[in-house]
Amino acid sequence: MTKHLRVSPKTVLLGAVCASTLLLSACAGGGSGPKDTAYVARDVESLYAEAKRRLDQGNAPLAAALFDETERQHPYSPWARRAQLMSSFSYYVARDYNKSIQSAQRFLSIHPGNKDAPYAYYLIALSYYEQISDVTRDQKITEQALVALTEVNRRFPQSEYAADARLKLDLVNDHLAGKDMEIGRYYQRSGRWLAAQIRFQNVVDTYQTTSHAPEALYRLVESSLALGVPQEAQKYAAVLGSNYPGNEWYERAYELMQDKAPGVTAS
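The structure corresponding to this sequence follows.
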């Protein structure tokens, strides 16, 4: 998975941002301010408004710095809490995902029961999700995305964030299954049939609802035959035929059984 089916979170996120800053909308058109705005002491309303204006103009890195500065200069103001979330969102827009995660985690550590906590958890999950690499690379970030998305769905199952998290969870699971398939096929090519079998079995056991499950069952048929256990190959072919009748992988498994183990039926 290279996020080819990714649902853009920007609409959901912007909706959440607007909902959390309704009381601030009158300030969103603040003045341009001095050139080095982030390091000039200003009243909290003007500083926050300048940060919001920069974000609206598409300058997310500067907006994030200004939201951080709002919190730094006015840590006890109600605006500081809003600035923390807006900072996380701005870093996300700027694709500085590590800082987005850090800002959201800081918000949750200070305001764990806040009404905007679901939004903070969602930002963390998205920031991990956006960093998922192709299946040829290490999948630590993918696993972190899986954990974070699962947390959103577990904590806030009825929220709009959970609905998007569930969709992304399907894609993440498919991605992780794809990684196991790639490794398993490599082991097969290397003649390491038992190691391959373990990878394919994990796909069947852990990611059975993904698109990789039919091929994993077929590869288990291949590996079992190579290991000299045609009865096991028959079992996997039967599961494949029962769950995916007419699937191309079942057709291939049937032909393989007929060719390599003609005395054992694959159906």
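Residues 135 and 205 are 19 Å apart (CA to CA).
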